[in-house]
Design brief:
Number of strands: 11
Radius of gyration: 24 Å
Structural class: alpha/beta
Largest sheet: 6 strands, mixed
Number of helices: 11
Strand order of the largest sheet: 7-6-8-5-9-11
Order of helices and strands: HEHEHEHEEEHEHEHEEHHEHH
Shape: globular
Distance between the termini: 83 Å
Strand content: 15-25%
Length: 345
């Protein structure tokens, strides 16, 4: 009987020790909570793709990383997002390089009017070039990946069938797309996508350069009447997904690998999301019975010639800053051709 009591005592003690050990987590088992500022509204497919990315991080870390998304610029607005990550207002951020013009002098080249065929190609090229060059302008964060929309088109409140129709027209544009508007004879006005609907509605601007998905994703198709298909000078807008550098360095190598692996996989998912959104945007425009204008071959050549100075100016400005603008541009063209061929474009 005495031995039974002693044995039972050992069993109870063992159970208690096991329970206590289970309650005390090792540092790697503690939950790391991170904030993620996203400028897209929660209904936008890119915000939803960001949510899927965050969920996958959580799944692969067995819940050891919990990422809370703040959509629609509720934590930091679109132009402040990058600096918000640098200063620690958010741990992770997604916004456009173009929203802080001049801040990213080499990576501005990603947005040049080079005839991007779709979002998948633009996204793969943008990530590849950013990782290849690793420019000093993004050294104050850890770049997880970059994605980019399909070719920018011109959506207007009156028809644009030739260059002359753009003369003096007030066009919403950001970053390098502002210079594209100028080269085409228009007057660019910088504003975020969130401001554009009301500006079009009130006539503050008469047109917007944007991927066609924007006309549904941000409802701007409701306040325009025509779309001019300008993919021959298709620019993109590259969007960063970056993490605060100190936060990144504080993660264990195991967790860093999870972030790297998942981010690599989501490059393609964001590209697919952009292309899906473009298809939905085109369908939305058709449903609204907006006229889509196609430029003939001669007019396309005129538009290409008109934007050539934008490319030349980029190369010159980069050289003045000691940056390899011409090499970056050459590599961009080669990467677009490579990925276009791979996707059958």
């Amino acid at each position: 009987m005495r031995w039974c009591k002693i044995f039972a005592s050992f069993v109870v003690t063992g159970i208690m020790l096991t329970a206590l050990m289970g309650c005390g987590q090792s540092p790697e088992e503690k939950v790391t909570e991170l904030s993620y500022s996203v400028f897209f509204p929660p209904t936008h497919i890119q915000c939803q793709t960001a949510e899927a990315w965050a969920a996958e991080i959580g799944r692969r870390t067995n819940g050891r990383v919990k990422i809370t998304i703040y959509p629609g610029g509720t934590l930091t607005n679109a132009p402040q997002c990058y600096e918000g990550v640098v200063s620690g207002v958010s741990d992770i951020g997604m916004s456009c390089f173009a929203y802080t013009r001049g801040r990213f002098p080499l990576l501005e080249g990603l947005d040049l009017p080079l005839g991007y065929p779709n979002g998948m190609v633009a996204t793969k090229v943008a990530t590849e070039m950013t990782h290849k060059y690793q420019p000093a302008e993004v050294n104050d964060v850890h770049v997880l990946y970059v994605h980019a929309h399909g070719p920018g088109i011109l959506a207007t409140r009156k028809p644009v069938r030739q260059l002359e129709d753009l003369a003096g027209m007030k066009v919403r544009a950001t970053g390098l797309s502002s210079k594209i508007v100028q080269s085409l004879g228009g007057t660019p006005l910088a504003m975020s996508q969130g401001e554009t609907y009301e500006s079009l509605q009130k006539g503050v601007v008469e047109a917007t350069f944007c991927p066609i998905e924007t006309l549904k994703g941000w409802k701007q198709g409701e306040v325009i009447t025509h779309v001019t298909e300008t993919s021959v000078i298709g620019y993109t807008t590259a969007m960063f997904v970056v993490m605060n550098k100190s936060v990144w360095e504080g993660l264990s190598p195991e967790l860093q690998k999870v972030f790297t692996d998942v981010s690599s996989e989501f490059v393609g998912k964001h590209g697919q999301a952009w292309d899906q959104a473009d298809r939905e945007g085109a369908a939305f425009i058709e449903e609204l019975q907006r006229e889509v204008i196609t430029l003939d071959a001669a007019e396309q050549q005129r538009w290409q010639a008109a934007v050539q100075p934008v490319l030349d100016e980029y190369v010159k400005a980069a050289a003045e800053k000691g940056l390899p603008g011409q090499q970056f541009l050459d590599d961009l063209r080669a990467a677009i051709a490579k990925h276009s061929e791979a996707t059958g474009q």
